[in-house]
Amino acid sequence: MTTVPATGRMWAIDRALDDLAGGESAWAACGLAKRRELLERVHAATAEHAQAWVSAAVAYKRLPHDSPLVGEEWITGPYPVLTSVGALAASVGALEDGRSPVDGFSVGRAPGGRVAVRVMPHSVWDRLLLNGFSAEVWMPPGVTKEAVRGNAGLALRHPADTDGVGVVLGAGNITSIPILDVLYELYANNRVVALKLNPVTDGLFDVFSSVLAPLIELGAVRILTGGADIGSYLVHHPKVGHVHMTGSAATHDAIVFGTGTEGAARKKAGTPLLDKPVTSELGGVSPTIVLPGDWSEADLRFQAEHIATQRLHNGGYNCVASQVVVVAADWPQKDRFLAHLRAALSDAPVRPAYYPGSEDRVTQALDTYTAAERIGAGRVLITNLDPLEPGPALTTEFFAPVLGVLELPGDTRLFLDEAVHAANVKFAGTLGVNLVAHPRTIASLGPALDKAIAELRYGTVALNAWTGVGYLTATATWGAFPGHTLDDVQSGIGVVHNALLLDGPERTVVRGPFRPAPRALLHGEVVMSPKPPWFVTNRTAAITGHLLTDFAAAPRWSALPRIFASALRG
After folding, report:
1. Alpha helix segments (H runs only) across 49-77
2. Helical pair 177-187 and 78-96, crossing angle rounded to 10 deg
3. Per residue in 294-351, pLDDT tens?
4. Across the beta sheet with 114-120, what order do the strands follow?
5. How far apart are CA 473 and CA 120, in angstroms?
6. Does 1 score more than 50 pLDDT?
7. How many alpha carbons lie under 13 Å from residue 549 in its C-beta half-sphere?
8. pLDDT tens for residues 277-289?
9. In sequence order, which ranges of 62-176 are alpha helices (DSSP H)?
10. What CA–CA distances, in Å, run from 547 to 65, 451, 536, 555, 558?
């Protein structure tokens, strides 16, 4: 097996790309059965090295080994790779048998003449482990059920027709992203891949090399390390035909157009410095819209913890972290809710600011807003954002533990309309938007809420769930709302994950329970899911995350009692 730690050595990139040029022929020769077998080997390797993976992530994020927050590294590291590889292998198997990957999934209707593929729950395991959660992939208006079924499979419908060498510029925050992006390039787009790690994740080089070993041995993948000079040389290399990146819009523009006044001029003129196709997932400013209702004190506390999680998960360094909470100015319970939110932000476990530049971005928020206040260790809450001139809180991704509060007027219906308009017009990016609503509010709004969800121009919309659940759902799609361009990239271009290999999806819609079990049962809601293990306030997250990863490696009935017992103690 050959992997290439290429720091400071351009010749290593040349050699890696030469290897991939030869590996493309080997990949083209792999039929569907071989490609499925390679996924099964990646699955086994991920299971074997899951503990080493989590240990490496904990080390670079400087988490205490006994912290419940270690659960984040299980649930966003090896766990989604195991579930995604399994789902992708099932899709390859369907194509191998002459079926569509969509066969067996419920296909229904969504507002606006859309087709919706219900991707979760699908298996009995989904119904047990994620009870109360659901996810649909919505196609654009006008796409028929027949087209969804017939076009699913993407490049795997013609596996011998490969598409050259692609570069994946790996993310530095969530450790499953680089692996999932590599697999999508290979299987959905039929490109062999040079993965360039973000320097923050260099400590995962050995683990990633082991996980991708079956594809590295074939010659279909090479892994590179190094700084911006290595990345620049790599993406501009004549043997590279495509680039996929995860990061910020500013980083995207620097890579595509260059930096400084010359880069700005190229962007304005629409003349990229990087003259090859680029796809991307770039984050943005994600809002959480809280619809007014008559909530109990327990509801207020739980949803405050929910929104604190949306901001503080992974220390706040998530592309889809909630950055602004949108609340109704006239909601009688507004002040109580904000008090609970302030407490949840303060009481969440302390953790190091591991991501470069975090403290500078926190300082920027404090310097910009007179109403900004430090809460707890390194966290900032900005209240009283001006709806007319909200400033950078709505237009700049802080990528740090900074949360703003925007108040809008109106009763429930008018507030929802105003919030949807603000989310679509005033917020930067289109990766994800969250809505929180009491079951009675959902019932009273009826079709108006479905219409609002359809009007939100976001790649993932979540109702009573965090959009991060969409990220964790292998068969869901992940990416910006379609339609962005290189010179107005917003949250990116294209999608990833998408284990059903759907052609041209529009968005994923996730729904979850308003209350956790067992409290939900007391209100007549048939929900068995307790506080989710991704909550930053979950006391058993590390144990539950480990158990879930072990289950994803080998699903079995005998593993469920320990998972349920740990989850209920969370």
Report:
1. 50-61, 70-75
2. 10
3. 999 999 999 999 999 999 999 999 999 999 999 999 999 999 999 999 999 999 999 9
4. 106-110, 114-120, 134-138, 507-511, 460-463, 432-436, 286-290, 322-328, 402-408, 379-385, 372-375
5. 8
6. no
7. 30
8. 999 999 899 999 9
9. 70-75, 78-96, 124-129, 145-151
10. 16, 39, 17, 11, 12
**Dihedral sign, CA of 308, 313, 316, 321?**
negative
- Tokens for 317, please give them: 């360094």
Question: What was the pLDDT predicted at 504?
Answer: 97
**Residue 6 confidence (pLDDT) above 80:** no
Beta strands 372-375; 322-328: pairing state: unpaired
Q: Is the pLDDT of residue 2 over 50?
A: no
d(CA 534, CA 68): 10
Distance (Å, whole) CA 29 – CA 2: 20
Residues 6+ apart with CB under 8 A from 405: 324, 325, 327, 338, 341, 381, 382, 383, 384, 385
Residue 332: φ, ψ to 5°: -55, -25
Residue 314, phi-psi category: left (phi > 0), alpha (psi -120 to 50), beta (remainder): left
- How far apart are alpha carbons 161 and 484 in whole angstroms? 27
Q: Is the pLDDT of residue 5 over 80?
A: no
> Exposure of 210 by Cβ count < 10 A (0-12 exposed, 13-18 middle, 19+ buried)?
middle
> Is 234 strand, coil or helix?
helix
